[in-house]
Amino acid sequence: MDGVTIHPSRVIPHPKGDILHGVKASSDCFEQFGEAYFSTINCGEIKGWKKHTKMVLNFLVPVGEVQFVVYNGTDFFKIILSKENYQRLTIAPNLWVAFKGVSSQTNLILNVASIEHNPDEAENVELEDISYDW
Questions:
Q1: For the chain, does the N or the C end have fewer beta carbons within 10 angstroms?
Q2: Residue 68 falls inside a structural domain
Q3: Residue 42 structural domain
Q4: If we measure between CA atoms, which residue out of 117, 64, 68 comes closest to residue 96?
């Protein structure tokens, strides 16, 4: 889908605890740094739909499993990210995104956003406003 890219991310095994790479300024599709924040999502819960008009999202899931769905008005793109499928999901502005907690344990998302949070640059609609079979 245009505006959605997946970037393999490194998990570096270490006997005292693994290192999970995030993002570098030189990483593919990384535009600029605005802010980084963590979000949790409980198992079976769904957050979304949200569409940013300026922000580029860079999602990583270091703990748990999270299903992301991106909608461009016509088609859906779906992926489950986790430590076992450790990749960075980059989403351009003007695409709808929602996500669901899959693991019964903690589901942790890191977003490295291109701009600081501004509630005026995003739209939210109810889950039932975009028909998707979760």
A1: C
A2: yes
A3: 4-127
A4: 68
Q: What is the pLDDT of residue 26?
A: 85
d(CA 126, CA 123): 10
Q: What is the pLDDT at residue 29?
A: 79
For 107, counting Cβ atoms within 10 Å of its Cβ (0-12 exposed, 13-18 middle, 19+ buried), the class is buried
State the greatest distance between any 2 C-alpha atoms of the chain, in Å, as a whole number: 47
Peptide bond into 96 cis (omega under 30): no
78 closest CA partner among 65, 93, 62, 64: 65
Contacts of 21 (CB under 8 A, 6+ apart): 9, 10, 11, 12
Q: Running along the chain, 134 residues long, what does each successive block of 10 average in pLDDT?
A: 94 94 85 94 97 98 98 98 97 98 96 96 97 96
Write the single-letter amino acid at 109: I
Residue 30 confidence (pLDDT): 83
Predicted pLDDT at 28? 78
User: Distance between terminal CA atoms of the chain?
Assistant: 19
In the prediction, which pLDDT does 50 show?
A: 98
H or E stretch including 84?
A: none
